[in-house]
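Supplementary Text 2. Reproducibility record for the structural model of the 73-residue chain.

All settings were left at their defaults, and a single model was retained for analysis rather than an ensemble. We include the record here because the model underlies the residue-level annotations in Supplementary Table 4.
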Amino acid sequence: MYPLQVVSTVELIEIAVNIAVAHNIYVYNATYVTLSENVKAPLLTLDKKLFNSLKDTSYNICLFEDFYFPDFS
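Retained model, structure tokens:
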């Protein structure tokens, strides 16, 4: 089982707005970017525009189709 963690967007919004402005992306997308950084997990997306906006940054963003899923069995 994976542990669940609840994170309030209040904790993320200031950083998310800064990311959105810096990379010309929507704030709601930047909130996911901020959350992935906060929990130290890659952000998997099907949104190629978002991916292309951030692929040359330090953010750990992956296209869902390119992500390698390890065998957990």
